[in-house]
Design the sequence.
């Protein structure tokens, strides 16, 4: 990490053995170090994180920290022993899912196991309905991760996630207000490209580049949003 960069540390919240758990400024990391940093990370998946530290993004709600710590402990331990990332991620996800089930999130969305979860039940509030018929929703990110996809982060849309209803874009409510515009731009740009036939990998890569540029040039954000139909 460059000494000229602002250190992203906000608060040390826990210690597990020789590991320190830090809450960090994810917005700063995404804007200056790595735009792919999401809810949490550790050294073996993000080399800029010191080996003895686990980083958790500052959450708007701060209600998933224990899930993320349990996940990171497994992932870090396995990868330190040479286990490949994908295998470590799978094992860590299993532990995290177990903790989420114990917390009752899945029971809530399945009405105590009596029905399949419905994507509309995670809606928090309608942000805006666009002229092309797409609705942008702020959603309960914790419930999405618990009941649908544990790797859901920041946002998504119906062209990527089968559980997102048709013509919807979702923005995670754990994203702080100051970042939502950048995430919105990424999701709208990506969805529009995929709607025109682009494969996900190509659309995602270009959307990430655009998002990263606007994080460095915020004066360009509204113009780019307008180009994607956000009037």
Sequence:
């Amino acid at each position: 990490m460059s000494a000229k960069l602002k250190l992203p540390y906000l608060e040390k919240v826990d210690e597990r053995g020789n590991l320190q758990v830090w809450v960090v400024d994810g917005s700063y990391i995404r804007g200056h170090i790595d735009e792919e940093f999401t809810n949490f990370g550790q050294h073996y998946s993000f080399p800029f994180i010191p080996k003895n530290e686990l980083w958790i993004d500052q959450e708007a709600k701060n209600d998933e920290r224990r899930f993320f710590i349990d996940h990171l402990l497994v992932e870090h331990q396995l990868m330190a022993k040479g286990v490949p990332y994908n295998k470590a991620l799978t094992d860590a996800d299993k532990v995290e899912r177990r903790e989420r089930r114990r917390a009752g999130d899945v029971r809530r969305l399945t009405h105590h196991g009596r029905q399949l979860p419905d994507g509309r039940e995670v809606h928090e509030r309608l942000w805006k309905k666009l002229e092309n018929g797409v609705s942008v929703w702020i959603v309960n990110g914790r419930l999405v991760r618990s009941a649908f996809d544990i790797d859901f982060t920041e946002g998504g849309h119906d062209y990527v996630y089968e559980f997102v209803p048709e013509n919807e874009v979702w923005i995670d409510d754990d994203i702080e207000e100051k970042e939502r515009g950048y995430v919105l731009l990424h999701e709208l740009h990506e969805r529009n490209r995929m709607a025109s036939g682009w494969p996900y990998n190509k659309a995602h890569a270009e959307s990430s580049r655009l998002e990263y540029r606007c994080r460095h040039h915020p004066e360009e954000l509204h113009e780019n949003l307008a180009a994607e139909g956000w009037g």
Notes: Helices lie at 26-32, 65-80, 85-103, 105-110, 141-147, 177-195, 200-216, 221-227. The first helix runs from residue 26 to 32. DSSP finds eight helices and eight strands in the chain.
